[in-house]
Amino acid sequence: MPLQLRRGNVKPADSNSVEKKIKRGNAQRQGSWIRRLRGWLLLGLLLGLLLLSAGLAWLYSSSDDDITEVWVQQSQLLQEKKFFEVPCSEDYENYQRYPGCTPQKCGRAVTDTVVTREEAERIRRIAERGLALGGSDGGASILDLHSGALSRGQHFVNIYRYFGDQIKDVFSEEDFQLYRTMRQRIQEAVARTFGLDVSRLYLTKPTFFSRMNGTEAKTPHDEYWHPHIDKVTYGSFDYTSLLYLSDYGSDFGGGRFVFMDGVANRTVEPRSGRVSFFSSGSENLHRVEKVRWGTRFAITVSFTCDPAHAITDPALP
């Protein structure tokens, strides 16, 4: 008898179920691929953020050293004044104009011939004696001989009221005469450089000694390193000058003066006896680097064209 195949338990393939299995397999493979893609995208995003953070950190840490042009080095002894002219900003349009004084020519200058190193050393001793009466808890202390303001802890005191007649044991009439001589020479240098009538240029406040070191800031007054514009901070300022009383690289590290010009920072390295001065508007946005070690001494001497904001030279009470 011929053998017959029994087909009762063998069912033909269902085309719909096969198609569903194929679609399910494709969906699983597609889902797996999408999950892998998402993983790679997330990893790439994290790496990008890490690189961006590293780049910003590098830019911040290197801004003082790598992208700054040293305009005047400490080791240079300038036999002639160095001047860099910049266009005047519109800041002065917001104030009354004074012919023969209000900036028409703007820029910044550095000279080593206005004050000698010996005179600067004597002026520094005045600052040291006065600041020894107090001093900030943070890294920046000031002494203003005009108003008497002295940093003391996290506040200010008036040395003339606080110490009374004892102040005559700290300062002498010769000290104040040297101070007046220094101020007059700087004022004449500013007037010559910017083509001003010196009789229309007036000393203004604040004019003060500063002592900076690497101590952590305790109050906003200690945070001297922020970029700022003198004409915006002090509306009376038209010209700003600084006399440096210590040497970058030997007395202190950091603490350079930085003009922020957008395309490049231009830096002045302090040298004892060096005078830097500039028009006070936003054409001379600037900051001071944080002092990393040692102590930086300087005196800021400020000038205005507005006689209503003029102050006199300091004198012993």
Question: What features would you describe in this structure?
Answer:
A hairpin with a 1-residue loop joins β6 and β7. Helix content is 29%, strand content 25%. The strands form 4 sheets. The chain has a 7-stranded antiparallel beta sheet, with helices on one face. It has 317 residues and is of the alpha+beta class. The longest helix has 48 residues, at 15-62. Mean pLDDT is 87; it is low at 1-13 and 52-66. The protein is built from 5 helices and 16 strands. The chain has helices at 15-62, 117-131, 159-162, 173-194, 230-233, and strands at 68-72, 82-86, 106-111, 135-136, 140-143, 149-153, 155-158, 202-212, 239-244, 252-254, 257-260, 265-268, 275-279, 286-288, 291-294, 296-304.
SSE string: HEEEHEEEEHHEHEEEEEEEE
Number of beta strands: 16
Q: What's the average pLDDT?
A: 87
User: Roughly what percent helix?
Assistant: 25-40%
Low-pLDDT ranges: 1-13, 52-66
Cα-to-Cα separation, first versus last residue: 142 Å
Tell me the structural class: alpha+beta
Portion in strands: 25-35%
Q: What is the helix tally? A: 5
Main β-sheet, in a few words? 7 strands, antiparallel
**Shape, principal axes of CA atoms:** globular
Strand order of the largest sheet: 2-3-13-9-16-8-5
Radius of gyration: 34 Å
List keywords for this structure.
317 residues, 5 helices, seven-stranded antiparallel sheet, alpha+beta, disordered N terminus, 29% helix, 25% strand
